[in-house]
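User: Design a sequence. Structure:
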């Protein structure tokens, strides 16, 4: 007798590979990249070092880090043709569409986009990683009728992004907050966009196709868009005094509080803890505490209402407030998430390719068979 088919809708609890990249303990509020805690990485590492760690599997030596930083930096400027292409996009375009299209177009300016050699694949990924912030910042300036600002070799990845976006050198604290935010978003195990990259990698497609798949999947509101939605909620509430009314009404209407709940974390998201602390410092340094205080009031009210449930604040409850305070436009939050996650996507694609098997699941067919073909003229309607 045939075994009954089990359908794993959403692929919940389906394992597709063994991995040494990321471990999440959603019950104990723990997150590790390659064995290192997210708290240690946020405190001691940089985005470039974390990207190296994720992709190569171990912390770099001084020289390896310097070389890697140089590789990213030297890739940060855009080919004139690519900049020209970005100039041709409608200024009303969604920045995620711009990033997806530009990353895909990067393949056209690579004389050899396809390679099966792992080191060459990593080179392509570093090229994309280097250029992503420049693409995002250039488009934002163009849509505001300003000229793109070129990258600066003396700045790290996070600081250079802010510099290209605003045209001003960020102070060291802003650059540090941006850097930590990039570290926190760089990797998160087998989520939807990482799976998408893994599926594309399993066909032996090139790195441009792999990363483009990830960006396309991250674009959806169920994945990358929650940070924007969380900020919009905080802005709409607008004042700590209105938080309780908002939460009571929203939960009464069975609405979800954005920035709360997680498929994996059933307690505090450790990234939330780090971002909240940084957000508080950032807000007080800038003397702009109202938005932050409103987010705290929403959080406290939601925690009271949801007490006893496994619904806790996630990374997005404060990431939007932090990005907003860093003067990043709201519709760039998801592209910023993508420019950081390129590191994790690359690590997973490379790890999968080291023991590749084409991903080809099945669908249980429940339709009809052997229907007689009906000529067009004979069909009803
Ligand atoms: C992220 C998310 C999709 C994970 O959800 P999940 O683990 O699949 O849980 P479910 O969607 O099955 O929800 C389980 C229950 O918790 C409730 N719930 C989940 N998140 C909630 C939230 N943010 N606010 C209020 N209730 C919530 C659901 O309404 C559901 O209640 P019910 O059983 O009475 O219907 C969900 O928590 C959510 O939509 N959060 C808001 C968006 C967000 O912040 N996303 C960023 C994630 S990093």
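Assistant: Done.
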């Amino acid at each position: 007798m045939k075994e009954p088919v089990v359908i794993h809708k959403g692929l919940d609890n389906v394992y597709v590979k063994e991995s040494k990249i990321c471990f999440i303990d959603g019950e104990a509020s723990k997150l590790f990249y390659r064995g290192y805690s997210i708290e240690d990485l946020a405190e001691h590492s940089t985005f470039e070092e974390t990207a190296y760690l994720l992709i190569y599997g171990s912390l770099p030596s001084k020289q390896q880090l310097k070389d890697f930083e140089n590789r990213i930096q030297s890739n940060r400027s855009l080919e004139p043709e690519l900049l020209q292409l970005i100039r041709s996009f409608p200024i009303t375009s969604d920045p995620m569409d711009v990033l997806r299209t530009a990353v895909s177009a990067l393949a056209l300016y690579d004389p050899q986009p396809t390679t099966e050699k792992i080191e060459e694949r990593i080179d392509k990924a570093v090229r994309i990683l280097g250029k992503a912030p420049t693409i995002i910042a250039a488009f934002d300036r163009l849509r505001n009728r300003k000229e793109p600002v070129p990258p600066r070799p003396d700045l790290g990845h996070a600081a250079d992004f802010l510099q290209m976006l605003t045209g001003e050198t960020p102070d060291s604290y802003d650059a540090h907050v941006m850097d930590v935010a990039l570290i926190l978003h760089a990797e998160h195990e087998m989520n939807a966009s990482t799976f998408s990259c893994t599926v594309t990698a399993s066909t032996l497609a090139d790195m441009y196709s792999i990363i483009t798949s990830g960006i396309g999947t991250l674009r959806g509101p169920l994945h990358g868009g929650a940070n924007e939605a969380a900020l919009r909620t905080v802005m709409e509430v607008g004042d700590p005094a209105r938080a309780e009314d908002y939460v009571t009404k929203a939960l009464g209407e069975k609405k979800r509080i954005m920035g709360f709940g997680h498929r994996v974390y059933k307690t505090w998201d450790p990234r939330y803890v780090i971002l909240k602390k940084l957000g508080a410092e950032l807000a007080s340094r800038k003397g702009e505490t109202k938005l932050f205080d409103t987010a705290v009031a929403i959080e406290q009210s939601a925690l009271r209402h949801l007490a006893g449930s496994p619904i806790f604040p996630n990374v997005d409850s404060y990431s939007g407030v932090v990005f907003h305070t860093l003067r990043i436009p709201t519709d760039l939050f998801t592209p910023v998430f993508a420019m950081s996650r390129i590191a994790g996507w690359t690590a997973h694609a490379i790890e999968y390719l080291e023991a590749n098997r084409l991903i080809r699941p099945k669908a249980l067919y429940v339709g009809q068979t052997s229907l007689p073909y009906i000529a067009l003229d004979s069909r009803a309607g």
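DSSP finds 16 helices and three strands in the chain. The mean pLDDT is 96.
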